[in-house]
Amino acid sequence: MPIPVIAQVKGLATAAGCQLVASCDLAVAATNTHFATPGVNIGLFCSTPAVALGRAVPHKITMEMLFTGKPISAEDAFRYGLINKVVPEDDLEEETMKLAEQICTTSQPVVAMGKKCYYKQITQDRDDAYRIAGQVMVDNLKLQDGNEGIKAFIEKRKPQWTHADDTNK
C-alpha cells in the first residue's frame, strides 16, 4: 500500500490485533491500552502475530510476549518501538489526526516512493540497501514534486505540491 497506514489503538490489542498494530507504519495508543499475544496460554501459539511483532520490536521482547502471553502496557509498547506515541484516551483521535494531517502536508508520490523504498531496502544487506536507496533518490529527483521541493527550499518558501506521480514518464 503506497500510503502510510496509521493505527489508533485503545483498550486491548491481542493476537491478530497486536499483529495489525505491528504491521502498520505508525501507531498511536491511549494510555490505558495493552498489547498481548496470549495464544500460548490456550495451547495456540501466536505464530502469525509473531511475524509482524518480530519485525516491530526487539527479539527478546517479542519472545517474552510470545512465550508468556503476558500483556505489555502502552508505555512499554512505546519504549519497545511497537507504537509511536502514547496519549490520554480523550486526546487519541485528535493526536492521530494530527499525525495524519502532518503527513498530508507532504507530497503523496514522494511519501509513496519513500515508503516503498524503506520496505524494500530493510531486508537487504547494507550495500544492497544503499544501492536501492540511491536509485530511489535519483528517481525522486525526477518527480515534479522533488524539483518543486528543492526550488521552494532555495527560494525559502513553502512548496506547492502537484501530487503528480510522474515516475513513468
TrEMBL record:
Localization per record: Mitochondrion
GO molecular function: hydro-lyase activity
Keyword Transit peptide: yes
First-listed, main subcellular location of the protein, grouped into a coarse class: mitochondrion
GO-annotated biological processes: fatty acid metabolic process
Stretches that traverse the bilayer: none
rRNA-binding listed as a keyword: no
Pfam name, any one: ECH_1
Keyword field: Fatty acid metabolism, Lipid metabolism, Mitochondrion, Transit peptide
GO cellular component: mitochondrion
Protein's job: May play a role in fatty acid biosynthesis and insulin sensitivity.
Protein name: Enoyl-CoA hydratase domain-containing protein 3, mitochondrial
Organism of this sequence: Paramuricea clavata
